[in-house]
Amino acid sequence: MDGKCAIDIDHVSMTYKLYRGRTFTAIDNVAFNVRPGEFVAIIGPSGCGKSTLLRLVASLEKPTAGRVAVDGRDPSEMSRQHRLGVAFQDHALLPWLSVRKNMAIPFKAADLPVDWQRVDELLALVGLSQFGGVRPGQLSGGMRQRVSIARALVLRPSVLLLDEPFGALDAVTRRHLNMELQKIWSAEAITTLLVTHGVDEALFLADKVVVMSGRPGKITRVLDVPFQRPRLPELMRSPQFHKLADELTLALEPDGTV
């Protein structure tokens, strides 16, 4: 990695106008950056503005103060050029289309010919080659999320944005998909920003963990994760992993230390 910023969050605030002249500040003066190829996780209590921050990077909203840049450009420009891959907790797969045809949607949205080789390559990467012809309703929740992430990567974006992609899944499936996501990230070598409630998930996957406080959302700690890659499930049972997980959990408490 070089010293450039793939994602630059420069003292960003987001305030919403409510009725009768009232306002609500979701995030306040948030600043951090993500280097090219880096995997960064954002954790924090519900309502702290994690997803709002991701939406700003995804060009789904504009900040009321500060600046967001992706590869030095406005996120809206990156979005128009289909350089942002996004996957949410809701997989958003169309139930009447097969898995392969769902994977082809980004090509059609970008008015590009479908690269079926790329589609099949990604289905193989997420271990779903044999399910290309089935519909989403025939897949498990974990399989649908893998398709969603693969679809987010199909146009070879510069940045992958993940908003609680495994939040609705059981603990065993979630841990398995953490391994899958690590494999995908390693194979694609893509800058990734993950929003999660899971401290263990953040520590296992990320190079850096950003901790946010609640209402308005502010950064209280940035942790450089010391574990080497590739990371195996046994890491989660190590004393150092538990020590850092306890520190991050404490930092999430309203009166936690940093």
TrEMBL record:
The identity of this protein, by name, is: NitT/TauT family transport system ATP-binding protein
Q: Which residues form the ABC transporter domain?
A: 7-239
Family, according to the entry, reads as follows: Belongs to the ABC transporter superfamily.
Q: Which GO terms describe its molecular function?
A: ATP binding; ATP hydrolysis activity
Which CDD domains does the annotation name?
Answer: ABC_NrtD_SsuB_transporters (cd03293)
PROSITE patterns with a match to the protein in the record: ABC_TRANSPORTER_1 (PS00211), ABC_TRANSPORTER_2 (PS50893)
Record SMART domains: AAA
Q: What does the UniProt keyword field contain?
A: ATP-binding, Nucleotide-binding, Transport
Keyword Transport in the entry? The reply is yes
Superkingdom field: Bacteria
Q: What is the lineage of its organism?
A: Bacteria, Pseudomonadati, Pseudomonadota, Alphaproteobacteria, Hyphomicrobiales
One family from Pfam that matches here is ABC_tran
Which InterPro entries does the annotation name?
AAA+_ATPase (IPR003593), ABC_transporter-like_ATP-bd (IPR003439), ABC_transporter-like_CS (IPR017871), ABC_transporter_ATP-bind (IPR050166), P-loop_NTPase (IPR027417)
